[in-house]
Amino acid sequence: MTVTGTITEDTAAPRKLRVVMAQLDFLVGDIPGNTDLIIQATREAAERHQADIVLFPELCLTGYPPEDLLLRPSLDLRVQEALERLQQANLAPAMIIGAPLRAAGLLYNAAVVIEAGEIRGRYFKRCPPNYQVFDEKRYFAEGSQTLVVDIKGVPVGITVCEDLWKDGPLEDAAAAGAQLVLNLNASPYDIDKQARRKALLERKATENRVSIVYVNLVGGQDELVFDGGSMVYDHSGTLKVEIPQFTNGLFPVDFLCEHHCQPVSQPLPPEPSLEANVYNALVTGVRDYVNKNGFKSVVLGLSGGIDSAVTLAVAADALGKERVRAVMMPFRYTSSASLEDAEAQARAMGVQYDVFSIEPMYDTFMATLAKPFEGTRPDTTEENLQARLRGVLLMSLSNKFGSLVLTTGNKSEMAVGYSTLYGDMAGGFDVLKDVPKTLVFRLAWYRNSLAPVIPERVITRPPSAELAPDQKDEDSLPGYDILDQILHFYVERDYSAEAIVAEGFDRADVERVLRLVDINEYKRRQAPIGVRITERGFGKDRRYPITNGWKLGF
Fold this sequence. Notes:
Layout: E1 15-23, H1 31-49, E2 53-55, H2 75-88, E3 94-103, E4 106-115, E5 118-124, E6 148-151, E7 154-160, H3 169-175, E8 180-185, H4 193-208, E9 211-216, E10 218-221, E11 224-227, E12 231-233, E13 239-242, E14 249-257, E15 261-263, H5 274-292, E16 297-301, H6 306-319, E17 324-328, H7 336-349, E18 352-355, H8 359-368, H9 380-401, E19 403-407, H10 411-416, E20 429-430, H11 437-450, H12 456-460, H13 480-492, H14 497-502, H15 507-519, H16 521-525
Parallel strand pairs: 1-2, 2-3, 7-8, 8-9, 16-17, 16-19, 17-18, 19-20
Antiparallel strand pairs: 1-14, 3-4, 4-5, 6-7, 9-12, 10-11, 12-13, 14-15
Helix pairs in contact: 1-2, 5-6, 5-11, 6-7, 6-11, 13-15
């Protein structure tokens, strides 16, 4: 165990310490730009908030997760140049940043303490995670030492993200005399994550009799969304400060440090509803994916159904109506209700709206295919052709105008393969990829509670792909209230078929749904990425072989 700095004895008068939580959005790979942001934020924290410490998120220097950028030969040089710039800035507050650092030939996920132009301490993350979306053991060695550094006369312990979730690192910092523990995080959002964080922080603060400052990253990175939600707990396990989720900025908190570092309470934000939180996550994910990748605008197919309606609402809220184009592509099976509702929503939201019939193109294709299809009956081939023609139209608009195509499939459909390769799956980003259909309905009602932009008929009438006469989704699938429960047990909790049947579901439904999930892995591998909002989405979380002989059962 290593203790850095001088631990000063308590005196009669409590010491005052101001920590500024930098809940900010960093761009993965942009080390110079991220360095600029750290310097700018530290200066602002000093000038506006008189900060003693500015605490940044995990790996803020590279952004998170940097993935195989960590294997680039120039990584060490770029990080060293950034650290030198941070030292040369010679800023008054102590900056605590996250960066990859190499020592004795090994790479570590590190926290670096820089004060008055000097590096006062380095801490190497002791518990790199390797589960769900985390793959840190591919890159990082495990640290083994504890860091407690004296800042303004206060013994401050440093830990990084997963270190808090395991026993050892925080306990060692408290045993080494830390009165305050600062925890740098890049913790991605899922529906229940903030509640789990709070339970953990309450327990750790209480057991170790130390105050904890938990600072988290905010913003979107590919399929991951980071929600911030930075917090401060006192040594009795009481939540004293909480920063609203999905909020970018600098947030000061004062401590009075004597035998303990007691944070000064601040009003806590209201608890957001599940629908509000998920909606904010989707907006954040779309906004950052589009902006960070340099797209000028987005385009999507607006069908008059609920999935495209919610996708349009999210896109317009994320980017502004001027950057969104909605396209209705009717066919002979498209109902008048769909045409009317799509136009009504597009007008209500003020986005560019076009109507391009796919019927002439469909007839041309079918004329070309008449000879090879001779003697066969219409089936899903003709239905899929409709979806693929729509995909061609949207991709053509994308190529011509530099717009990103947003696809509109939800998690329930992606799970069972209720989608068309190179058709409605054609595009660059799927907003609802991890949103079950039942939650899509709830999001529609939530968005309308803010301002009624989605026609009520879109939400209330039975869902249909409208690829055949009088078609309904539930003609070929169990009801979504049943389907989503089965999928939750199988996809997110890894229940077997027998275990799901034991939960009270019909065996035929269970076996049918699970078989559809298994045989459609090949489709999901070719699907665009989308915002992850559950504990286990289709992407980095779930890695099943396409070719396999695993049988349903126990």
